[in-house]
Amino acid sequence: MKELRNPAALRRLLEDIGEKTRVLGRKPRLMEVCGTHTMALFKNGLTPLLAEAGVEMVSGPGCPVCITPNGIHEAAIAAVTETEDLTLATFGDMTRVPTRKGSLQTAVPARGSRLRVVYSPEEALDEARRGTGREVVFFGAGFETTIPAIAYTAKRAAAEGLRNFSILPALWLVPPALRAVLASGEAAVDGFIYPGHVSAVIGAGPYEFVAREHGIPGAIAGFEPGDILLAVRSVLEQAVEGRPRVALEYARAIGRDGNPVARALMAEVFEPFDAVWRGLGRIPASGLRFRKAFAALDAGTRFGLGPADEGRDLPGCRCGDVLRGVIRPEGCRLFGTKCRPDAPLGPCMVSYEGACLIHFKYGPPGGPVS
Amino acid sequence: MCLAVPAKITRLEESGHGTASYLGSEVAANFCLVPQAKPGDWVIIHAGFAISVMDETEARETLRLFKDMAAAERR
How far is the C-alpha of B50 from the C-alpha of B29, rounded, in Å? Predict the structure, then answer.
């Protein structure tokens, strides 16, 4: 798909975008909900080019590592430090989030216990299947993109009657978070770039309330530079025409209806509850927990990790404000000085999708980008 | 964490497990979430699971769009 990186085509799209902002007569502010989009925007140098064309991009809450509150990270640390002969398996970024108890990487595991980084939840399940007398806990964080894989793994474990496997869930739903961002009114966005891979599962329907109830345009985007500019152009086109909707600008990869098989699996294993997000607080029906039939797989219950409270952020960390789109990373006093990728004080400086890490890595030294 | 990659299915077992080719490498993947997929199809893979089957017609359409835009810009 090198055509989607063709400079001439991208120039053409940027000219169209500039033309539309001139017609609008103001500088629109668009939120890219997904952290992978933030990364793509910065890595490809699109943020300053869009600013020149009159479009301000602001990052949304689309980083599961970041929005998982410290209470849950601390529960994972408790699992591996307080139980012997236990493997805590999780995705790489989750191991470096700093809390009052250190991070999973700095914590000293209990005797015989260890931390394991996995790419797929099935790797953790395979370790449990080997049945070496170890407990295996998968610390599973993710949005709708990841949740079906975790649901599949849970269902397999239950079907095989594996007694040494459990899951510590940190599962988050994007549409309720958008509802919360819009209800707070703080971010003042004129349009949304919707996440391509979350949409591969949920489809376009769950965003339609944004256009219908709030009159705000949006487009589902892929992750090549051309994909993102196509989506930005579509959002501005909708704004100019005064006809907000949910455009699908990633049709080669996903359908408007998403993946019903994946959704059915999610609904079979998990049920929604009012979860607490870092920065956004408690949001109605925004998290998933095990249904009763799968409750035996809940690592929180099995190891007495308790209902994880919110936990506190480290002093001075403003990840919460960054996640709400209220400040840019550069607006935090710790950014780039006391908080850096090699010594992070908050998850937004840890995750590959964290706005602070991305701004630090790709932003110009010493100042905001736009 | 919603990073996902396009890959072409090279082997598909009855269990739903198999392999896909991504940038010249063979990777193991689980295809249970896309029961309609068959060898040769392009899929989107995330965390070891294929979550979507790609649409070749739409992909060609996108390519054509970008080729046209590039050509128009060069003129």
Answer: 7
Could you tell me if the ipTM is greater than 0.85?
Answer: yes
First to last CA, chain B: 40
Nearest to A146 among B1, B58, B62 (CB): B1
C-alpha A336, offset from chain centre? 22
Neighbours of A134 (CB within 10 A): 18
Helices first, then strands: H and E counts in chain A: 15, 11
Amino acid at A36: T
Whether B66 sits inside 8 A of A65 (CB atoms) is no
The token duo for A109 is 């595991």
pLDDT string in tens for chain B (75-residue length):
578 999 999 999 999 999 999 988 999 999 999 999 999 999 999 999 999 999 999 999 999 999 999 999 877
Q: With contact defined as beta carbons under 8 Å apart, do A305 and A79 qualify?
A: yes
Q: Quick check: A149 contacting B, CB < 8 Å?
A: yes
Q: What is the DSSP letter of A102?
A: B
What is the secondary structure of A118-183 as a DSSP string?
A: -SSHHHHHHHHHT-SS-EEEEEEEE-TTTHHHHHHHHHHHHHTT-SSEEEEEEEE-HHHHHHHHHH
Name the strand (E) or helix (H) holding A288. strand A281-290
pLDDT tens sequence across A209-266:
999 999 999 999 999 999 999 999 999 999 999 999 999 999 999 999 999 999 999 9
Global pTM value: 0.95
DSSP string, chain B: ----EEEEEEEE-TTSEEEEEETTEEEEEE-TT-TT--TT-EEEEETTEEEEE--HHHHHHHHHHHHHHHHHHH-
- What's the pLDDT band for A308 if we cut at 50, 70, 90? low
Pairing between β-strand A191-194 and β-strand A218-221 as defined by DSSP bridges: parallel
* Mutate: best of B51, B57, B63, partner A, most A CBs <10 A: B51
Residue A227 and residue A34 in contact, taking contact as beta carbons nearer than 8 Å: no
